[in-house]
Amino acid sequence: MTAAALSISSEEHGRQLRRAVIASAVGTAIEWYDFFLYSTLTGLVFAKLFFPQSDPLVGTLEAFAVYAVGFAARPVGAAIFGHYGDRVGRKSTLVATLLLMGIATFLVALVPTYERIGIWGAVILTFLRFVQGVGVGGEWGGSVLLAMEWSKSHATRGFIASWPQFGVPCGLFLANLAVLTFSRLSGDAFLAWGWRVPFFLSFVLVGVGLWIRLGILETPVFRQLVAEKKIERAPMLEVILRQPKEIFLCAAIRLGEQAPFYIFTAFIFSYAKLAALPVSRDFILSAVLAAAVIGFVSVPLSGHLSDRIGRKRMFMLGAAAVGVFGFAYFAFLGTGSAALILVAIVLSLVPTAMMYGPEAALIAESFSSRLRYSGSSLGYQLASVIAGGPAPLIATWLLDRTKSPYSIAGYVLACSVLSLVAASQMKDNTGRDIDGAHAPHCG
Fold it and tell me: CA–CA separation, 6 vs 1, rounded Å?
């Protein structure tokens, strides 16, 4: 889709592209800030406050079970917002997901603990976690398409689409920074009120995100679909019937990226306690914070490199690196050396970024434009049920049963191998016209 089709100048097209990239990155960062707050605080706070009658291991498992609910909800959000994203547009759908996520996160700050209302606190927390998951489930596909469909060249889609992915390390950074800041400010009162403040701050960030997103135009690709009357009546159903293989493969390739990512960023807080690592809560928070900063560079760089060497090749290099790194990660943690623990955590997101950077374009390029929001969202978010959500639970269970962290490294390796196999079966559309004569087959 060219600028002429929108009756705007090349200069205006470039301006809208920059706005779309910024809106996608900032909006995604805010939504992931919301989501990662829960991830971080699950291992630090929720087991103690909402499951205090359980022993530490069982309480951790129960807290991670509630944590997993958010992942189970993500395919639901993908189905709901994928439908509307392909029916009414990328922009309006993204406004709705941001509001939904922001309100749910803000309300988490108000949930009474077990001491106040018993098990109902955990019930309310579970419901809000589900709503969070629905919002995130609809967010990713729209953010990627908002940026990618404004791209002016087929040769830069990987780099452009990686900027919404940039929102993940950015959201992780903001979430851990907020928790670290109020951990230090509240001190011993962190369990009493300090953990709630970062959730309150979500309300301000959502306001910023809405202001940015409301200031951009709908993508050229979607406007062309409207002009040519090619909008599908039931896009989610159509993509399931027409491109089931692509949906399955998009979910499968994420095993080696998503499962390790949540082990490295969420499970690490519980592992530090269960394995009695000789470092403090704030030390782990600071280390994850540093890892997120490295992601600011490694994610877009990986997207850029995928435009040069191919989407699949870059992704598969990352998958292989993750499988090997898992063993080094737990070996470094097991030394008890604060310096080596720091190195392990800080470097942990580099191999996953090698997959995550090109992943957005690799998935989105697999679907035709009129089914792209639905197909890419569903494929991407189905992985949450089999990878992201269960990963901390599986890691906790493996550690308890085997007493060895290398069983978790073996689990990471297995996920990376499955990603490699799935990626090898995908078509590489790097640099190809995916909205014209060489669009992905659909029908």
Answer: 8
